Amino acid sequence: MPLPIEDYAVLGDTATAALVGRDGSVDWLCLPRFDSHACFAALLGGPENGRWLIGPADPDARSSRRYVDHSAALETTYTTDTGRVTVLDVMPLADNRADIVRRIVGVEGTVRMRHEWVVRLGYGKVRPWVRRQELHGVQVITAVGGPDRLILTGPRLPRAVDGRHEDEFDVNAGDELEFSTTWVPSHLPLPKPLEYDHRITRSVELLDRWARRCSYQGRYREAVVRSLITLRLLTHDATGGIVAAATTSLPEDFGGERNWDYRFCWLRDASLTLEALLECGYAHEAKLWRGWLLRAAAGDPADLQIMYGVDGSRELPERTLDHLAGYAGSTPVRVGNAAVNQRQTDVLGEVMVALQMARDIGLEETPDSWSLQRKLVEELAEHWQEPDNGLWEIRGPLRHFTHSRVMVWVAFDRAIAAVERHGLEGPVERWRTLRDAVREEVLTHGYDAKRHTFTQHYDTTEVDASLLVLSDVGFVDGDDPRMLGTIKAIEEDLLRDGLLLRYRTQSGVDGLSGDEHPFLACSFWLVEAYALAGRVADAHALMERLLALRNDVGLLSEEYDPAHRRMVGNFPQAFSHLALVSAADQLERGRHREQTASAEAR
Fold first, then answer.
1. 430-439: per-residue pLDDT in tens?
2. Which CB contacts under 8 angstroms, 24+ apart, belong to 379-388?
3. Which of 3, 23, 294, 377 has the most other CB atoms within 10 Å of its CB?
């Protein structure tokens, strides 16, 4: 049985990411890219599906862990009755390689350590051809299957035992042992060994220096910086694609079917991630992402998808991996995502917000980038009245989701701003007419005057947590009576143990069986809505509670089960971390507004 989700930490090299547990087991790793096949897939099955364990042999060993400085280098300290050791896990950055380095250091006494290296390619299904070879005069173990080759190096290699490699050895105070696993295409020669000290030091320094550029200096800086680092690790540095999470099929409902592959680039999630980065002073990332968008969306605007592969690829066929038992018995395990073919009208609104923010901070518009935006807005102008699947990727009937309609309004609004504030060319009068028409439609059909709340879609009185963003995007003021009524209705219908559900699954709107748990991004949206409504004390109280839900190294999953106090869903989740950053920024801006108002009053 894999560990609780919160017992994992993430390693990353801005090309892919690994999950390593408190016990020292790397239970998830796709090489060489986020959306590649996994070679360690124990997370969704068991050790027989691949893992790399370096941890104490004593099952009662105590552990503590931290990231070194503002980096993704994970240091875990294990203490037993006989001694203490540290294990430093790093995926080196900026070296055009795919490696995990694991350094064991004896601190005091003697600790018995266990080493297991079990490679299973094809998401834990394919047993590779494993053998010992010589690499530049040093013995290594290689595992080859199809296009993939993994290479294990170290001063003491484990022994072959029934389809896996294992070893136990003592680490004494002062001992230092370094192991690495490297991926290369199987048709290429074995690479040179890593220079461990240089690669580890440089990787820590690069990310620490990047994190220190964060312009946010408010009350929640520590949480904001760790969230930004996590978002950076979910960004593919070579292409600019931003994945929604490092994993697939970690369930929203333990034992249920709500298991999805998040290792792709949703335009919405990527846009919101970009907004979080821009809020904290990261302008270079906007240019990188805009380049990815131009390549991914190139062609007929009518062919725009809601998500793409890391490299901008369009085909993401969904299939199930029936050889995997699923996390906590949650099946099916899915790879690919059928939602790629959905219509989600809100997406362009998020894209336009992010690009408008980039313009506002000085990112120069190029003829190609504005041409693409203008064509996308014109395509929306022809089809904005059509129903869609909504931002929650509802697999039921198409609806006129209120959030989607508001984001249509936002798309036209930001296009108008591009013309009026930045001097770009466009049919601004036509866009103004459409913007006004969308607003009138939402206020007529997406608002329940009896309950004084906006509704999930035009054919229901149900509410949806996505309605909380209406004030943040400028559709209504935060203290508008309609917004205050919406907050009240959402509190009444969607709060579970003080945290917020996306919507009531009992309504049947999503066409799926089972339930789900509070969605963490929605609770951060409630923080922002409270702040904009003037409920500052409530906003800070909820923010503090949400920050307390992070695991010991500051990471968040998609959802949280307050009854059993455990994380739920894919991990680490970009949506949760970007929403944390946005909420912290909103609270800080609110503090500055209060100070300015107080000074003016004097």
1. 999 999 999 9
2. 379/301, 379/302, 379/304, 380/345, 380/348, 380/408, 380/411, 380/412, 381/412, 381/430, 381/431, 381/434, 384/345, 384/408, 384/434, 384/438, 386/343, 386/345, 387/343, 388/342, 388/343, 388/344, 388/345, 388/346
3. 377
